[in-house]
């Protein structure tokens, strides 16, 4: 367990018949960002709530920051921070007032609370907006304030439960920057997410969770290799061009091309991404194959799921059924 900031073994949590966690294992190295990746209802929030002492499991063991989560919950609480799936900041107060209030909640005393608030506003690039009401903040600013609030005591381990769900790309980018800065200052982060690209960008290791169990634990590259990594994808204008396009794609790309006849799509895995894309585009043009669309596609959580479990995530199954 040495060198791990979070260590959980065989965690169980039942709600009636429902097994929210069903023998869940997790090991997070100190000083890293670890991604916990899974679809809606997989058990991410349940795992985070257990590890942050908010709820008790029905079975299993867990250590956080070197302490037993169930025997030493108070000591654990003093070493962790938690940003929930739903923001906890007060809309009416300003950003600064929110942070000062959290500081006093943690018994910092007026002066230290003010200093810490100013420091965190600076760190999360909120100084200009500090004295505006939070009701007027953008989504990204709000999440940054939420992150700042969970950093009041500079925790050894920070749990971030879907910190970017519902944010636009700019807001997501801002939160990612803040997370990187935290880790650079020594905090270990466990981040739950439904987005493979988010886990890929931030985490050095990813645990994939499905129905309360870890179904994979790997580096982002390892997971992407499992699904064949990035793909070049061509959408054709004419069905009759499919065989010719398959030949071109097979010649240029490393992996076996796959065809989606209904959507006139031909795609194949690539490692040399941009070079392969350029080469496919050029060759198709030389051969007079009309192309509707061409691009690089990064694997999604859905692709990972399909490879690991043989089924799609339930959400996308529903979407598929509705379409
Ligand atoms: N308090 C509760 N009472 C009953 N069932 C619960 C409770 N909390 C969670 N569950 C169930 O346990 C399962 C796991 O839920 P959890 O919230 O941990 O999933 P999640 O991975 O965080 O999902 P999301 O991505 O939607 O946040 C779900 O089926 C959920 O309905
Ligand atoms: Mg959740």
From TrEMBL:
PANTHER family: ABC TRANSPORTER ATP-BINDING PROTEIN, DOXORUBICIN RESISTANCE ATP-BINDING PROTEIN DRRA. It is an enzyme of class 7 (translocase). Residues 6-236 form the ABC transporter domain. Its main location: membrane. It is a peripheral membrane protein. It comes from Streptomyces cyaneogriseus subsp. noncyanogenus. InterPro entries: AAA+_ATPase (IPR003593), ABC_transporter-like_ATP-bd (IPR003439), ABC_transporter-like_CS (IPR017871), ABC_transporter_ATP-binding (IPR050763), DrrA (IPR005894), DrrA1/2-like_C (IPR025302), P-loop_NTPase (IPR027417). GO terms for molecular function: ABC-type xenobiotic transporter activity; ATP binding; ATP hydrolysis activity. NCBIfam families: drrA (TIGR01188). This is ABC-type xenobiotic transporter. GO terms for biological process: daunorubicin transport; doxorubicin transport; response to antibiotic. It is found in: Cell membrane.
